[in-house]
Amino acid sequence: MLAVLLTTLLAAGPARLTPDALRARYAGIRSLTADVVQVKEGRFWARPLESRIRLRYTPERIVWETLSPVSSTVTIEGDRLAVADAAGKTRELGALAGDPRVGALLRFIRSLIAVDLDALDRDFAIRYGDGELVATPRDGTPRLFESVRLRFDPRDDLTDMELATATERTRLSFRNVQRVPPPPAAAPRGVR
């Protein structure tokens, strides 16, 4: 009897990620911080470039602080984008806010970090798989990426993100994620 039960469970495979589970997990985030390792590679890169980043998110403001290899800070606030270099010199890129591609990029970044499925769904076709979400641009939307892949652990916490263009791939790994409010307690996917 035990053998039949184990065979049935193993044959079923991992449970699929669902939009409802993600919406419940990410609803109401007021703030989020994380350590991020970013690896960029592509046709025009001599070798992969690894960066260490500190992410701070609220619905009103995103701060992407690159700690290494070169210190810089990108701040998104409303439709404003500011970049501060290692010396602290800040450049406002507000003039770009009128460009629909920049507006799409800022909306996209917010929706990714917050795992805002409704916002992502406006510009991307979303496919759910085993522990992952894959988004591809809808026809007629600004094509920032060929595909975006979000990977989640069994409790539906975001662990990795991959952004792919025709010539480049960027992988982001999220560690030490702290959120307010904390995520609701959840049994691992497939145990619910």
Mean pLDDT: 83
Which percent range fits the helix content? 10-25%
**Order of strands, widest sheet:** 6-5-4-3-2-1-11-10-9-8-7
Give the overall form.
globular
Write the layout of secondary structure elements.
Layout lengths: L1 H11 L6 H8 L4 E12 L6 E10 L2 E8 L3 E6 L2 E5 L5 E3 L7 H14 L3 H7 E5 L3 E6 L9 E6 L5 E7 L3 E13 L12
Antiparallel strand pairs: 1-2, 1-11, 2-3, 3-4, 4-5, 5-6, 7-8, 8-9, 9-10, 10-11
Provide a descriptive summary of the structure in words.
With 192 residues, the chain is of the alpha+beta class. The protein has one domain (16-180): outer membrane lipoprotein receptor (LolB), chain A. Helices cover 21% and strands 42% of the residues. The chain has helices at residues 2-12, 19-26, 100-113, 117-123; strands at 31-42, 49-58, 61-68, 72-77, 80-84, 90-92, 124-128, 132-137, 147-152, 158-164, 168-180. α3 packs antiparallel against α4 (117-123). The longest helix has 14 residues, at 100-113. The protein is globular.
Brief summary of the model shown:
This protein has 192 residues and is α+β, with helices and mostly antiparallel strands. It has helices at residues 2-12, 19-26, 100-113, 117-123, and strands at 31-42, 49-58, 61-68, 72-77, 80-84, 90-92, 124-128, 132-137, 147-152, 158-164, 168-180.
